[in-house]
Write a structure and sequence with these properties.
Helix content is 68%, strand content 0%. With 107 residues, the chain is mainly α. The longest helix is centred in the N-terminal third of the chain and has 16 residues. The chain is globular and about 45 Å long.
């Protein structure tokens, strides 16, 4: 189901007024990617980029064309690991957060 403009605007407004919400979106995107759900991770990243840094600024920070970044973060996008790392890194830098990885021992 396609997201409505109202929902997307709500995400933008919430991210602008609540930095913890933006950080939670980044955490969720990373968690989904690492859990084997890259499609939803890309969609969350796309919404987060639209709500915070913007694709033009992301293009400058990653040294990748804005249109390519849009395609990478589309539902059918297929970014390379290097591109995805650059996107996560730029957004992380913009939000001034660090990732902490926790592992669980599975028996």
């Amino acid at each position: 189901m396609a997201l409505t403009r109202n929902f997307k605007q709500t995400v933008v407004e919430r991210a602008e007024r609540d930095p913890q919400f933006a950080k939670a979106l980044l955490d969720e995107a990373a968690t989904r990617f690492l859990s084997g759900n890259p499609e939803s991770a890309r969609i969350i990243l796309r919404d987060l980029v639209n709500a915070t840094i913007g694709f033009e600024q992301l293009a400058e920070m990653t040294e990748k064309p804005s249109k390519s970044l849009h395609r990478m973060l589309s539902p059918r996008g297929n970014p390379s690991m290097d591109s995805l790392a650059a996107i996560f890194g730029a957004v992380r830098h913009w939000l001034k957060v660090a990732f902490e990885v926790h592992t669980i021992k599975v028996a």
